Amino acid sequence: MIRARVISIALALCAAVPLAAQRGQDDPDPVIRSLVKALYATDVKAFEAVTLPHPLRSRLTSGGSVNEDGLRELREDPQGLQIRQMRPFMFQGKPVTLGTNSRYAVGTTALYMVAHHRQPMVMALTRRPEGWKVDLRWWIAMTELMSGKLPPADSPEVAIRSLLAAMLRLDRARAQRYITDARGIELLFGGAPSQREPSGVLDASVGEMPLVEVGAGEFFTMPSGRIVEGSQTPDRKVMVGWFGPVEMPFVLHRAEAGWRVEPEPYFALMNQ
What we know:
13 strands; globular; 30% helix; 10 helices
């Protein structure tokens, strides 16, 4: 069973109006339902059958007890499990539809909000040759956040969080320290509010945002609309965070003073 604290963070990631789910022969719905059932049943084998392999996957499948009430309610009221699509199906950074074989192309990705009894969590899926699989990387990144272990001060994660924190404070001078080109400061602050958001909710979302480095063959659309491909070269990284239920990609380059982020209009995502 996914550990309670991981679930509590996942639940906190949801607060947006979702897209209507696309329905068809290649619907991820059965895989999502199987995962929720496996979580309630603490069925490790079933959990692994619908998730992508990961060297740290066992972190999410230890301990816990069977949720008999949840299993009964899933059985008696299947529609009580709410599955909502958060963005279009994407292939190589572009929206995609079913192929002529009524299947999505291998490598297509999807993002859902899944809720049962008002307990939502964000779920990423990838189309593999054998079918849809749940991508656990962001959930595993949550466990890293929960551990309390801090990344190095010169890490990409710190650069990203420092940049977003400065943006939320409307501190242009500080934000400029974390971007690759100072001339991009106007792009970075495009759509910025006239005053700082007072509740602290957005600041908390920055601290709780799970960040995952993506590799070659993975494509994401930046806030400006350009499409970037992941890499794992020594001096360039592409990382994707979940800011609430919104995917937020970053391209970083290593500089003498540490990692720097390519400027993008991130307020377009933070203000959703």
